[in-house]
């Protein structure tokens, strides 16, 4: 099931055919030879080393690994918030960095969910959720309608006029997800979006995310600490190992879609989870 | 807590009734305490004032402090009424108010602008920091005689004094505010590819507003001090000068009456700034209360 990968031979190993149900085969996000070294006060931190990943259109990638192994770093590089020390990242064939500057055009269809909700305390939930639409020049009334729709979608009906400070951590996180979904992004980058949720809500959000992914055909890169969540959602699970962060393995998940909560009880599912957990333990 | 219920109440009818009802019951005692805390100052302040005036009257009539040192509260009250009815004092009030407001307005505009620039341009802040610190530690009221020489005994020298005193707290707060824009919030705007203008309007300005108001609350008090001290030392009109005139006439009740007027003016101006803050940043913790 698992494709063991020597870190030095990039690109080719991700080309595992016939196991990407959502993908059309064409790469939407390409990470080639990415290295990241932070210049911290205590010296240099080698956060990522020679990361290569090719993500197909409509593919769902889960990114797992121990705390501090560089998941957020990789996601921030993909989101164009952090320049890689070396290597290139392309979205739809466009390089996302142009001469050290972020190429904003390449990010038009990106939706980001951060590890923290990062809602603006001066906006109500509705205004937070529809902020991206405001920046895109959508009218007030249409924005409001869309915000109501999105609040419903993430399970926050009736909270449109509440301020973020009046919400719980999990509710804030759901509002942040609604914000990322507001403009129907075709590439969704999510950093532990469900970390603050209880198990039941989490299951519900997972199902919701799966159907959003299926309907919109969005490409998703999803960081999580939960291996079962990673397997449940993903077409491929990418395992990172720390110090420096590198891709240890890429595991395809050939389970049929749509997946339901019963999927988690299937033997195939549990085998994949067990293998991944084993691999994580080995380090 | 009370804010939550308020927000829910404003929400459309489609809001599920259950959470609202559930929120109400267990919170009821807390809500009672909150309302009590809210109204406590309105109860305690009159009591404190009564105690103060009672002690004052006691000192005068029972202990027998000389009237030239401490006039009786009633005399001060009479003097205050005379002043206000007599009419001349309104001109002085107007002049002092004018000096304070104009000085404060300049300080607000210039302080915000300078603070914003220094907050963003690190090298410039480094370059002028020693000069800023030097300016800050100098007792600025010492400059009043110089301003009087330069700008005369009129209102200009007092406006400048009020402005300078109010400038520093505002500028320093804005500088801090500009630097305190949350990194995660910046990521959100950058992730959305927001323009500089949009980032300013949706992120930088709102997140700096609480700092501007924190500076303004101190600034308005300092502006009053600046104007009055200016009038003490080199004035020909205004409430500060009225204090000096009362002193020269050895009219203790009037002296006290003017001080009461000054205290009232300062409080009202401060209240005006705080009220503006409440209206403009209702979302901020300093406004919405700490309990929730
Ligand atoms: N701004 C920074 N400056 C210096 N070092 C950093 C910075 N951000 C992250 N690092 C370092 O890079 C490494 C990877 O961090 P990263 O945040 O990507 O981990 P992560 O996998 O997301 O962890 P977690 O699961 O806990 O969120 C860590 O060792 C961290 O100390
Ligand atoms: Mg992280």
UniProtKB/TrEMBL annotation, chain A:
Database matches in InterPro entries: AAA+_ATPase, ABC_transporter-like_ATP-bd, ABC_transporter-like_CS, ABC_transporter_ATP-bind, P-loop_NTPase
Every ABC transporter domain range: 29-267
Keyword Membrane recorded: no
Region (Disordered): 1-24
Stretches of the chain forming a coiled coil according to its record: none
Leader sequence residues: none
Keywords: ATP-binding, Nucleotide-binding, Transport
GO molecular function, one term: ATP hydrolysis activity
Protein name: NitT/TauT family transport system ATP-binding protein
Species this protein is from: Blastococcus tunisiensis
TrEMBL record, chain B:
Coiled coil feature spans: none
Keyword RNA-binding set for record: no
Limits of the ABC transmembrane type-1 domain: 93-277
Superkingdom of this protein's organism: Bacteria
Membrane topology: Multi-pass membrane protein
Entry GO terms, CC: plasma membrane
Annotated SUPFAM superfamilies: MetI-like
Subcellular location: Cell membrane
GO BP term, pick one: transmembrane transport
Keyword Transmembrane found: yes
Record keywords, A-Z: Cell membrane, Membrane, Transmembrane, Transmembrane helix, Transport
Gene3D superfamilies linked to this entry: MetI-like
One Pfam family per UniProt: BPD_transp_1
Name assigned to this protein: NitT/TauT family transport system permease protein
Compositional bias of kind Low complexity: 12-23
Similarity field: Belongs to the binding-protein-dependent transport system permease family.
């Amino acid at each position: 099931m698992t494709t063991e990968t020597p870190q030095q031979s990039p690109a080719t190993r991700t080309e595992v055919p016939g196991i990407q149900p959502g993908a059309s085969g064409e790469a939407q996000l390409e990470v080639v030879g990415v290295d990241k070294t932070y210049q911290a006060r205590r010296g240099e931190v080698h956060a990522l080393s020679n990361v290569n990943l090719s993500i197909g259109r409509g593919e769902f990638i889960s990114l797992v690994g121990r705390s501090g192994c560089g998941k957020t770093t990789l996601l921030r590089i993909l989101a164009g918030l952090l320049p890689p020390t070396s290597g290139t990242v392309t979205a739809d064939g466009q390089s996302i960095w142009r001469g050290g500057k972020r190429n904003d055009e390449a990010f038009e269809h990106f939706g980001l969910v951060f590890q923290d909700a990062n809602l603006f305390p001066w906006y109500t939930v509705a205004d937070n959720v529809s902020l991206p639409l405001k920046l895109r020049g959508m009218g007030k009334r249409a924005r409001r309608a869309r915000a109501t729709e999105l609040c419903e979608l993430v399970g926050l009906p009736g909270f449109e006029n509440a301020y973020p400070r009046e919400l719980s951590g999990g509710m804030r996180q759901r509002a942040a997800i609604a914000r990322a979904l507001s403009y129907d992004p075709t590439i969704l980058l999510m950093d532990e979006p469900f970390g603050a949720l209880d198990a039941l809500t989490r299951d519900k959000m997972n199902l919701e995310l799966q159907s959003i992914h299926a309907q919109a055909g969005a490409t998703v890169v999803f960081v999580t600490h939960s291996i079962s969540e990673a397997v449940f959602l993903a077409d491929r699970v990418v395992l990172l190992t720390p110090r420096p962060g590198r891709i240890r393995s890429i595991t395809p998940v050939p389970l049929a879609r749509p997946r339901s909560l019963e999927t988690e009880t299937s033997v195939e599912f549990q085998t994949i989870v067990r293998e991944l957990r084993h691999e994580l333990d080995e380090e | 807590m009370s804010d939550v219920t308020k927000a829910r109440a404003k929400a459309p009818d489609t809001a599920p009734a259950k959470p609202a009802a559930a929120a109400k019951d267990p919170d009821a005692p807390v809500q009672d305490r909150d309302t009590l805390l809210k109204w406590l100052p309105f109860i305690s302040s009159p009591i404190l004032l009564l105690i103060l005036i009672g002690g004052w009257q006691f000192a005068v009539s029972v202990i027998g402090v000389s009237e030239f040192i401490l006039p009786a509260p009633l005399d001060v009250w009479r003097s205050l009424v005379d002043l206000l009815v007599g009419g001349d004092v309104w001109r002085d009030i107007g002049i002092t108010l004018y000096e304070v407001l104009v000085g404060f307005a300049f300080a607000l505009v210039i302080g915000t602008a300078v603070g914003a620039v220094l907050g963003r341009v690190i090298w410039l802040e480094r370059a002028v920091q020693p000069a800023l610190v030097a300016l800050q530690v100098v007792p600025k009221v010492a400059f009043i005689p110089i301003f009087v020489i330069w700008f005369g005994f009129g209102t200009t020298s007092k406006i400048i004094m009020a402005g300078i005193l109010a400038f520093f707290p505002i500028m320093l707060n804005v500088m801090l505010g500009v630097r305190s824009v949350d990194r995660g919030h910046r990521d959100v705007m950058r992730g959305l590819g927001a323009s500089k203008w949009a980032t300013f309007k949706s992120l930088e300005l709102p997140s700096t507003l609480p700092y501007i108001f924190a500076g303004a609350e101190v600034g308005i008090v300092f502006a009053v001090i600046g104007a009055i001290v200016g009038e003490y030392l080199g004035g020909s009109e205004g409430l500060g000068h009225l204090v000096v005139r009362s002193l020269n006439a050895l009219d203790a009740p009037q002296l006290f009456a003017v001080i009461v007027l000054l205290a009232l003016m300062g409080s009202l101006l401060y209240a005006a700034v705080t009220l503006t803050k409440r209206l403009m940043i209702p979302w901020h913790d300093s406004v919405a209360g700490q309990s929730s």
